[in-house]
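User: I would dearly like some help making sense of a protein record. This is the protein in question:
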Amino acid sequence: MRVVTLAAAGLGLLLAGARTAQAQGTLNVYCSAQIEWCQALATGFQATSGVRVNMTQKGSGEALAQIRAEAQNPRGDIWFGGTGDPHLSAAEEGLSQPYQSPLLPQLQDWAQKQAAASGYKTVGVYAGVLGFGYNTEITAKKGITPPRCWADLTGPAFKGEVQMANPNSSGTAYVMIATLVQLMGEDKAFEYLKALHPSINSYARSGTGPIKAVARGETAASISFMHDAVTERVAGFPVGTNAPCEGTGYEVGSMSILKGARNLANAKKFADWALSVEGQATGAATKQFQTPANTAAPLPDGAPRFADMKFIDYDFAKYGAAAERKRLIERWDREIGSLPR
């Protein structure tokens, strides 16, 4: 678990600003975006509102587990980012509460649909495409053709050369499983995952772990959100990306105000600010390349473009349901996670 407070992060707030923050109260945010984005959100909202932000950063699967564990005594006020499926599960389980921001009409259709599907207990804040990342130097050195299709990853060239995340802790990995089930049918999807297992050298804890391993030359390829691969490439690492030729799914990164939030008024203020053009710009400012939810927020330069990819008709309502999510992850544990390495 990574906990970030503005003081601990060494952001050098002025004494006057700190007094203003104290006067305006506090806000406890669980953040499932990249740590740099989480810090920028905390800094920007505190500067704008005078509210002192305590930020805890962890993957969406881990965040949901913590929110469930704290249901009788909530410690968080609002949960920002991470794949939308666990946010929908939290809404279904009564772990979040409805809120309709006045900025809702300014959002992309997919963000508004996410809100409506949850009874306005969550809302889309960004979108990202599932695809492949690969290390251009490793693939060239080993003579491996970069992956372009799901089928490529089960070939002999990729044996022990791929990383993906563990769906028990990572929303990215769950989106992958749900995507394959919708693309292939459930039994064939699990046959594919069994065939993929010899190619996997590690099931990482977080969704960003595999692409970071690609960037640092620890593995040849990963199954990742493509915007995370762009982040690594912009940072100077030898990373390439492709969207699966057969079709792929996407995430609607979401935001939910937690039921029993002790700082409810500040949570609503944060939600409004995070959906504003100013709040949405914190992603691009920290070199995150998701598609923003606010239609007035510009698409970051270099961000993956949806028009260039083949998508499945992802059923967020079905695969965001808590029972379906639990069932598919348990099947993965039985049939894939238990396989010898």
